[in-house]
Amino acid sequence: MPLALLLSRIRLPAVKMPSTRSNASARLVRASRADLNPVVREVKRESSVSFDVSKCESTASVKRKRVKRELEVNGEYPKKQVGIVPDIEDFRYDRTKAVPSSSKATLSSVKVEEKVRVSSVMKAKAPENWEAVLGGIKNMRLSGQAPVDTKGCEKAGSLLPPKERRFAVLISTMMSSQTKDEVTHAAVERLSENGLLDPDAIVRIDEATLANLIKPVGFYQRKAQFIKEASKICLERFGGDIPDSLNELLALRGVGPKMAHLVMSIAWKNTQGICVDTHVHRISNRLGWVFREGTKQKTTTPEQTRMSLEKWLPKDEWEPINPLLVGFGQTICTPLRPKCDMCGINNLCPSAFKESSSPNPKQKKTRS
Q: The organism sits in which domain of life (predicted)?
Protein backbone atom coordinates (compact mmCIF):
# COMPACT_ATOMS: atom_id res chain seq x y z
CA MET A 1 0.00 0.00 0.00
CA PRO A 2 1.38 3.37 -0.91
CA LEU A 3 2.65 5.36 2.09
CA ALA A 4 0.43 8.32 1.38
CA LEU A 5 -2.68 6.17 1.42
CA LEU A 6 -1.61 4.57 4.74
CA LEU A 7 -1.10 7.88 6.46
CA SER A 8 -4.45 9.14 5.33
CA ARG A 9 -6.18 6.21 7.02
CA ILE A 10 -4.51 6.72 10.46
CA ARG A 11 -6.76 8.93 12.77
CA LEU A 12 -4.94 10.98 15.37
CA PRO A 13 -6.77 12.58 18.43
CA ALA A 14 -7.56 16.19 18.01
CA VAL A 15 -5.54 18.61 20.11
CA LYS A 16 -7.25 21.85 21.19
CA MET A 17 -4.98 24.82 20.99
CA PRO A 18 -5.38 27.54 23.60
CA SER A 19 -6.90 30.75 22.50
CA THR A 20 -4.48 33.61 22.51
CA ARG A 21 -7.25 36.04 23.31
CA SER A 22 -8.51 34.01 26.33
CA ASN A 23 -5.01 33.71 27.81
CA ALA A 24 -4.49 37.41 27.55
CA SER A 25 -7.79 38.14 29.32
CA ALA A 26 -6.99 35.76 32.18
CA ARG A 27 -3.58 37.33 32.68
CA LEU A 28 -5.17 40.77 32.72
CA VAL A 29 -7.73 39.76 35.40
CA ARG A 30 -5.07 38.15 37.60
CA ALA A 31 -2.85 41.17 37.29
CA SER A 32 -5.74 43.47 38.18
CA ARG A 33 -6.60 41.45 41.28
CA ALA A 34 -2.97 41.29 42.37
CA ASP A 35 -2.69 45.03 42.00
CA LEU A 36 -5.93 45.80 43.80
CA ASN A 37 -5.79 43.27 46.66
CA PRO A 38 -3.10 45.00 48.77
CA VAL A 39 -4.99 48.26 48.49
CA VAL A 40 -8.26 46.65 49.51
CA ARG A 41 -6.69 44.87 52.46
CA GLU A 42 -4.93 48.02 53.62
CA VAL A 43 -8.03 50.16 53.34
CA LYS A 44 -10.12 47.56 55.18
CA ARG A 45 -7.61 47.21 58.01
CA GLU A 46 -7.21 50.95 58.49
CA SER A 47 -10.95 51.49 58.43
CA SER A 48 -11.55 48.78 61.06
CA VAL A 49 -8.93 50.13 63.46
CA SER A 50 -10.10 53.69 63.08
CA PHE A 51 -13.71 52.74 63.68
CA ASP A 52 -13.11 50.58 66.75
CA VAL A 53 -10.83 53.06 68.50
CA SER A 54 -13.16 55.97 67.93
CA LYS A 55 -16.05 53.90 69.18
CA CYS A 56 -14.21 52.95 72.38
CA GLU A 57 -13.07 56.53 72.99
CA SER A 58 -16.59 57.76 72.42
CA THR A 59 -17.99 55.19 74.90
CA ALA A 60 -15.35 56.14 77.46
CA SER A 61 -16.12 59.84 77.06
CA VAL A 62 -19.86 59.29 77.54
CA LYS A 63 -19.31 57.15 80.64
CA ARG A 64 -16.87 59.62 82.17
CA LYS A 65 -19.31 62.45 81.61
CA ARG A 66 -22.12 60.44 83.18
CA VAL A 67 -20.03 59.64 86.25
CA LYS A 68 -18.94 63.28 86.46
CA ARG A 69 -22.56 64.44 86.36
CA GLU A 70 -23.54 61.96 89.10
CA LEU A 71 -20.68 63.11 91.31
CA GLU A 72 -21.50 66.78 90.74
CA VAL A 73 -25.19 66.23 91.55
CA ASN A 74 -24.26 64.59 94.83
CA GLY A 75 -21.71 67.25 95.71
CA GLU A 76 -18.78 64.86 95.66
CA TYR A 77 -16.98 65.86 92.48
CA PRO A 78 -14.63 68.44 94.00
CA LYS A 79 -13.18 65.76 96.30
CA LYS A 80 -10.80 63.73 94.19
CA GLN A 81 -10.63 60.19 95.51
CA VAL A 82 -8.28 57.56 94.24
CA GLY A 83 -10.08 54.62 92.72
CA ILE A 84 -13.51 56.25 92.56
CA VAL A 85 -13.43 57.71 89.07
CA PRO A 86 -12.45 54.98 86.60
CA ASP A 87 -9.24 55.41 84.62
CA ILE A 88 -9.42 55.75 80.85
CA GLU A 89 -7.53 52.43 80.62
CA ASP A 90 -10.62 50.70 81.94
CA PHE A 91 -12.32 51.46 78.65
CA ARG A 92 -9.48 50.53 76.30
CA TYR A 93 -9.86 48.20 73.37
CA ASP A 94 -8.17 44.83 73.82
CA ARG A 95 -6.74 44.04 70.39
CA THR A 96 -5.20 40.75 71.51
CA LYS A 97 -8.65 39.30 72.05
CA ALA A 98 -10.38 41.38 69.39
CA VAL A 99 -13.07 42.33 71.90
CA PRO A 100 -13.41 45.46 74.01
CA SER A 101 -12.54 44.97 77.66
CA SER A 102 -16.07 45.96 78.62
CA SER A 103 -16.05 43.86 81.77
CA LYS A 104 -13.58 46.25 83.42
CA ALA A 105 -15.54 49.24 82.26
CA THR A 106 -18.81 47.79 83.48
CA LEU A 107 -17.39 46.84 86.88
CA SER A 108 -15.82 50.26 87.36
CA SER A 109 -19.04 52.01 86.42
CA VAL A 110 -21.10 49.84 88.73
CA LYS A 111 -18.71 50.41 91.65
CA VAL A 112 -18.79 54.15 91.13
CA GLU A 113 -22.56 54.28 90.91
CA GLU A 114 -22.94 52.12 94.01
CA LYS A 115 -20.54 54.28 96.03
CA VAL A 116 -22.34 57.41 94.94
CA ARG A 117 -25.72 55.95 95.85
CA VAL A 118 -24.58 54.70 99.25
CA SER A 119 -22.80 57.91 100.17
CA SER A 120 -25.62 60.14 98.99
CA VAL A 121 -28.62 58.27 100.42
CA MET A 122 -31.06 60.84 101.73
CA LYS A 123 -31.92 60.44 105.37
CA ALA A 124 -35.53 59.44 105.90
CA LYS A 125 -37.77 61.81 107.79
CA ALA A 126 -37.68 61.00 111.49
CA PRO A 127 -40.98 60.01 113.14
CA GLU A 128 -42.88 62.74 114.92
CA ASN A 129 -42.03 63.12 118.62
CA TRP A 130 -39.37 60.38 118.44
CA GLU A 131 -37.07 62.30 120.78
CA ALA A 132 -39.79 62.63 123.42
CA VAL A 133 -40.62 58.93 123.05
CA LEU A 134 -36.96 57.90 123.35
CA GLY A 135 -36.48 60.20 126.35
CA GLY A 136 -39.53 58.67 128.06
CA ILE A 137 -38.19 55.12 127.51
CA LYS A 138 -34.81 56.13 128.93
CA ASN A 139 -36.52 57.49 132.05
CA MET A 140 -38.41 54.22 132.52
CA ARG A 141 -35.14 52.28 132.18
CA LEU A 142 -33.21 54.22 134.82
CA SER A 143 -33.87 51.54 137.45
CA GLY A 144 -31.79 49.00 135.52
CA GLN A 145 -33.90 46.10 136.74
CA ALA A 146 -34.34 44.32 133.41
CA PRO A 147 -32.57 40.97 132.89
CA VAL A 148 -30.47 42.45 130.08
CA ASP A 149 -28.95 44.95 132.51
CA THR A 150 -27.21 42.28 134.57
CA LYS A 151 -27.23 39.13 132.41
CA GLY A 152 -27.07 40.32 128.82
CA CYS A 153 -24.30 39.46 126.35
CA GLU A 154 -22.63 42.75 127.29
CA LYS A 155 -21.80 41.27 130.69
CA ALA A 156 -20.12 38.10 129.39
CA GLY A 157 -16.51 37.81 130.54
CA SER A 158 -16.54 41.33 131.96
CA LEU A 159 -13.65 40.53 134.34
CA LEU A 160 -11.47 38.84 131.70
CA PRO A 161 -8.61 40.45 129.72
CA PRO A 162 -9.69 42.08 126.43
CA LYS A 163 -8.86 39.16 124.11
CA GLU A 164 -10.53 36.56 126.33
CA ARG A 165 -13.51 38.85 126.90
CA ARG A 166 -14.05 39.25 123.16
CA PHE A 167 -14.21 35.47 122.79
CA ALA A 168 -16.66 35.23 125.70
CA VAL A 169 -18.88 37.87 124.06
CA LEU A 170 -18.88 35.93 120.77
CA ILE A 171 -19.81 32.64 122.47
CA SER A 172 -22.48 34.32 124.61
CA THR A 173 -23.99 35.98 121.55
CA MET A 174 -24.05 32.72 119.60
CA MET A 175 -26.00 31.07 122.44
CA SER A 176 -28.42 33.99 122.91
CA SER A 177 -30.56 33.35 119.84
CA GLN A 178 -34.10 32.36 120.89
CA THR A 179 -32.92 32.08 124.48
CA LYS A 180 -33.63 34.25 127.51
CA ASP A 181 -30.79 36.31 128.94
CA GLU A 182 -30.92 34.44 132.25
CA VAL A 183 -30.44 31.07 130.49
CA THR A 184 -27.61 32.33 128.31
CA HIS A 185 -25.85 33.93 131.27
CA ALA A 186 -26.03 30.70 133.27
CA ALA A 187 -24.53 28.75 130.34
CA VAL A 188 -21.65 31.22 130.10
CA GLU A 189 -21.02 30.79 133.82
CA ARG A 190 -20.85 27.01 133.48
CA LEU A 191 -18.37 27.29 130.60
CA SER A 192 -16.25 29.67 132.68
CA GLU A 193 -16.28 27.32 135.70
CA ASN A 194 -14.99 24.50 133.45
CA GLY A 195 -12.29 26.64 131.87
CA LEU A 196 -14.05 26.63 128.50
CA LEU A 197 -14.17 30.34 127.70
CA ASP A 198 -11.13 29.68 125.57
CA PRO A 199 -11.05 28.55 121.91
CA ASP A 200 -8.29 25.99 122.44
CA ALA A 201 -10.16 24.34 125.33
CA ILE A 202 -13.42 24.22 123.34
CA VAL A 203 -11.69 22.62 120.34
CA ARG A 204 -10.27 19.87 122.59
CA ILE A 205 -13.55 19.03 124.35
CA ASP A 206 -16.00 16.66 122.66
CA GLU A 207 -19.19 18.08 121.20
CA ALA A 208 -21.58 16.06 123.38
CA THR A 209 -19.98 17.33 126.61
CA LEU A 210 -20.12 20.91 125.35
CA ALA A 211 -23.80 20.49 124.43
CA ASN A 212 -24.64 19.20 127.91
CA LEU A 213 -22.85 22.14 129.53
CA ILE A 214 -24.78 24.81 127.60
CA LYS A 215 -28.13 23.02 127.89
CA PRO A 216 -30.97 24.23 128.17
CA VAL A 217 -29.97 26.97 125.70
CA GLY A 218 -32.27 26.82 122.70
CA PHE A 219 -31.02 24.41 120.00
CA TYR A 220 -28.07 23.61 122.27
CA GLN A 221 -26.84 20.68 120.17
CA ARG A 222 -26.52 22.69 116.95
CA LYS A 223 -25.06 25.62 118.85
CA ALA A 224 -22.44 23.34 120.39
CA GLN A 225 -21.43 22.30 116.86
CA PHE A 226 -21.27 25.93 115.68
CA ILE A 227 -19.28 27.03 118.74
CA LYS A 228 -16.66 24.33 118.15
CA GLU A 229 -16.36 25.30 114.48
CA ALA A 230 -16.03 29.00 115.35
CA SER A 231 -13.39 28.22 118.00
CA LYS A 232 -11.32 26.30 115.47
CA ILE A 233 -11.51 29.19 112.99
CA CYS A 234 -10.51 31.67 115.72
CA LEU A 235 -7.43 29.56 116.48
CA GLU A 236 -6.38 28.88 112.89
CA ARG A 237 -7.06 32.26 111.31
CA PHE A 238 -7.08 34.85 114.10
CA GLY A 239 -4.53 33.61 116.62
CA GLY A 240 -7.16 32.74 119.20
CA ASP A 241 -8.93 36.11 118.86
CA ILE A 242 -12.28 36.70 117.11
CA PRO A 243 -12.88 38.25 113.67
CA ASP A 244 -12.87 42.04 113.68
CA SER A 245 -15.13 42.68 110.68
CA LEU A 246 -18.80 42.13 109.93
CA ASN A 247 -18.16 39.96 106.89
CA GLU A 248 -15.78 37.66 108.74
CA LEU A 249 -18.19 37.34 111.65
CA LEU A 250 -21.08 36.59 109.32
CA ALA A 251 -18.96 33.88 107.69
CA LEU A 252 -19.12 31.92 110.96
CA ARG A 253 -21.94 29.40 111.03
CA GLY A 254 -24.56 30.33 113.58
CA VAL A 255 -23.81 34.07 113.44
CA GLY A 256 -26.43 36.32 111.83
CA PRO A 257 -26.63 40.09 111.28
CA LYS A 258 -28.00 40.79 114.77
CA MET A 259 -25.18 38.90 116.44
CA ALA A 260 -22.48 40.32 114.17
CA HIS A 261 -23.52 43.92 114.88
CA LEU A 262 -23.75 43.21 118.61
CA VAL A 263 -20.28 41.62 118.73
CA MET A 264 -18.75 44.49 116.75
CA SER A 265 -20.27 47.01 119.18
CA ILE A 266 -19.45 45.22 122.42
CA ALA A 267 -16.21 43.40 121.66
CA TRP A 268 -14.53 45.82 119.26
CA LYS A 269 -16.28 49.11 120.18
CA ASN A 270 -16.95 49.57 116.47
CA THR A 271 -20.66 50.14 115.89
CA GLN A 272 -21.44 49.72 112.19
CA GLY A 273 -25.16 49.09 112.46
CA ILE A 274 -28.05 48.62 114.87
CA CYS A 275 -28.45 45.27 116.59
CA VAL A 276 -32.10 44.37 116.08
CA ASP A 277 -33.51 41.42 118.00
CA THR A 278 -37.11 40.43 118.58
CA HIS A 279 -37.66 43.18 121.20
CA VAL A 280 -36.26 46.00 119.06
CA HIS A 281 -38.20 44.69 116.06
CA ARG A 282 -41.50 44.50 117.95
CA ILE A 283 -41.24 47.81 119.81
CA SER A 284 -40.07 49.80 116.77
CA ASN A 285 -43.18 48.66 114.90
CA ARG A 286 -45.48 49.40 117.83
CA LEU A 287 -44.09 52.92 118.02
CA GLY A 288 -44.51 53.44 114.26
CA TRP A 289 -40.80 54.07 113.83
CA VAL A 290 -40.16 51.70 110.93
CA PHE A 291 -41.75 50.82 107.60
CA ARG A 292 -41.01 48.55 104.69
CA GLU A 293 -39.17 50.44 101.99
CA GLY A 294 -41.46 52.51 99.80
CA THR A 295 -44.56 51.70 101.88
CA LYS A 296 -46.30 52.65 105.10
CA GLN A 297 -46.58 49.03 106.18
CA LYS A 298 -44.87 47.49 109.19
CA THR A 299 -41.58 45.69 108.73
CA THR A 300 -41.78 41.90 108.77
CA THR A 301 -38.17 40.97 109.60
CA PRO A 302 -35.52 42.29 112.00
CA GLU A 303 -33.29 43.09 109.03
CA GLN A 304 -35.97 45.32 107.48
CA THR A 305 -36.32 47.03 110.85
CA ARG A 306 -32.58 47.61 111.08
CA MET A 307 -32.38 49.24 107.64
CA SER A 308 -35.43 51.41 108.34
CA LEU A 309 -34.12 52.57 111.72
CA GLU A 310 -30.68 53.41 110.39
CA LYS A 311 -32.20 55.79 107.83
CA TRP A 312 -33.23 58.32 110.46
CA LEU A 313 -31.94 57.41 113.93
CA PRO A 314 -28.78 59.43 114.80
CA LYS A 315 -25.69 57.24 114.80
CA ASP A 316 -24.80 58.03 118.41
CA GLU A 317 -28.01 56.20 119.39
CA TRP A 318 -27.22 53.03 117.40
CA GLU A 319 -25.30 51.24 120.15
CA PRO A 320 -27.49 52.05 123.21
CA ILE A 321 -30.81 51.50 121.39
CA ASN A 322 -30.54 47.70 121.68
CA PRO A 323 -30.17 47.27 125.47
CA LEU A 324 -32.56 50.19 125.96
CA LEU A 325 -35.42 48.63 123.98
CA VAL A 326 -34.60 45.06 125.05
CA GLY A 327 -34.98 46.03 128.71
CA PHE A 328 -38.13 48.02 127.91
CA GLY A 329 -39.54 44.96 126.14
CA GLN A 330 -38.65 42.65 129.04
CA THR A 331 -40.36 44.80 131.66
CA ILE A 332 -43.14 46.94 130.14
CA CYS A 333 -43.66 46.58 126.37
CA THR A 334 -43.84 42.79 126.60
CA PRO A 335 -44.73 40.54 123.64
CA LEU A 336 -48.08 39.53 125.17
CA ARG A 337 -50.29 41.85 127.18
CA PRO A 338 -48.01 44.94 127.18
CA LYS A 339 -48.36 47.01 130.35
CA CYS A 340 -49.64 50.13 128.62
CA ASP A 341 -51.21 51.43 131.83
CA MET A 342 -47.71 51.54 133.42
CA CYS A 343 -46.01 53.03 130.37
CA GLY A 344 -44.88 56.64 130.62
CA ILE A 345 -45.26 57.24 126.87
CA ASN A 346 -48.74 55.74 126.34
CA ASN A 347 -49.96 59.18 125.25
CA LEU A 348 -47.41 59.20 122.41
CA CYS A 349 -47.55 55.55 121.33
CA PRO A 350 -49.90 54.81 118.38
CA SER A 351 -50.32 51.22 119.59
CA ALA A 352 -51.17 51.99 123.23
CA PHE A 353 -54.07 49.94 124.65
CA LYS A 354 -54.76 48.40 121.24
CA GLU A 355 -53.41 44.91 121.88
CA SER A 356 -55.27 42.24 123.81
CA SER A 357 -55.05 42.49 127.58
CA SER A 358 -56.97 39.29 128.15
CA PRO A 359 -55.55 37.34 131.13
CA ASN A 360 -55.85 34.16 129.06
CA PRO A 361 -54.39 34.81 125.58
CA LYS A 362 -54.88 31.13 124.62
CA GLN A 363 -58.61 31.32 125.24
CA LYS A 364 -60.41 30.46 122.01
CA LYS A 365 -63.06 32.75 120.64
CA THR A 366 -66.53 31.22 120.62
CA ARG A 367 -68.08 30.91 117.20
CA SER A 368 -71.46 32.47 116.70
A: Eukaryota
Instruction: Give whole-number Cα distances, 244 to 170, 226, 272, 296, in Å.
Output: 11, 18, 12, 36
E strands, the chain, in order? 93-94, 99-100
CB 226 within 8 Å of CB 252: yes
Q: How confident is the model at residue 65 (pLDDT cuts 50, 70, 90)?
A: low
pLDDT in tens, 120-172: 345 789 999 999 999 999 999 999 999 999 999 999 999 999 999 999 999 99
CA atoms of 234 and 164, how far apart (whole Å): 12
d(CA 90, CA 278): 46
Is residue 315 part of the annotated active site? The answer reads: no
Query: Among 114, 116, 103, 123, which Cα is nearest to 77's?
Result: 116
The H helix count followed by the E strand count for the chain is 15, 2
Dist CA 265 CA 218 (whole Å) = 24
CB 205 within 8 A of CB 195: no
Amino acid at 275: C
